[in-house]
Amino acid sequence: MHDPNELIEAGPEAVRRLARRRYDLDLDAVSGALRDRSASQAEVTRLRTELNRTAKARRSGPPTEAEKEAARALRAEVQQAEGTARTAAGALTELLLGIPNLPLDAVPDGDSEKEAVEVRRGGPVPRPADGARHHAEIGEALGILDSPAAARLSGARFSVSHGAGARLERALGDFFLDLHTREHGYTEQSVPFLVGRDTMTGTGQLPKFEEDLFRTQVGDRELFLIPTAEVPLTNLVAGQLLDARKLPYAFTARTPCFRAEAGAYGRDTRGVLRLHQFEKVELVRICAPEVAQEQLALMVAHAEECLRRLELSFRTVLLPAGDMGFSARMTYDIEVWLPGGGAYREISSVSDCGTFQARRADIRVKRADGRKTPAATLNGSALPIGRTVAALLEQGVRDDGSVVLPDALVPYTGFRRILPGGGTE
What percent of the chain has pLDDT over 70? Predict the structure, then answer.
């Protein structure tokens, strides 16, 4: 969430120049709502001061009926003014909660993946797309992916993995967590998969994206299934004042993720690329704002290292302003090569959110000089299990239908090759 005073102080043209690249910001509406809140708060202060003044000025002895009536009338005015102030403050907050983060100047213009700027490529030379097989076909032939079973259990956009496929998924999660905790310095967390409305609001999923969330209601208790571990990991320090000397915090967790995919009807219906439920290892870093860009580069390197160790072809792109997530001010997508589709597809998004989420979740930093300022938050996937399986199948399949796994996974899987029929060796 934005500080409305900072939006206005930056000047209309400066804010509109940034905002119009992804959002039609009505700065006049923000200014008006801020004026209404300030005026209503000032009126409450005036009336309370008047109430206190009259109480002190009253002569000694029991108050007269006229004095009692005047005090009652003034208290009623105070209550009415307090109600008006709450309404004005709520209106301003509601307006601010709907405004996405403002992109940094270095972020390119555009509103689709076509305007993304390629930064680099990594891994082996991409396998040709000509004649390549889709991961769903490969997995079904191996006997490790079972879409019909998933459809019988839960309907569309779910997945079932058998035998070596399930073992591969477990191995990937362990591999990613070991890499991030042993070499990259993250602290592993075990977090709830159900969170409250305030937690979802803190990271920007609510109120704007409620239709994309799975919600539960038991009695009068409302909880949401997390769309990513970013939500509980970032909110681990919500409402806290952090010691600047102990930053950055680096958290990681493997969790299931639940997404309604309300705006993705008809897209990627085959295979495991776009599911309602999937597993992912998430990275979150919390730091002082002045080092956020350094932390972003570090997190991108951590995500890329996963793909390098897995010997997968990938590229890294800088997203344009209109294609970033709601809370991000800069995002790098890492795209893995899927020869079965003949395209690079996103496997990780790593975002610098600046102070946007910290303001919503009230995460502050206590500086050496005693100042208390909002923290910066960053998050990234490293990596989703299902999309990594898809890449391993499409890049690792051989002419005989078997799939060869990278050396880094063998200690985790206990096998190097998955054979047609689900056998291993």
Answer: 95
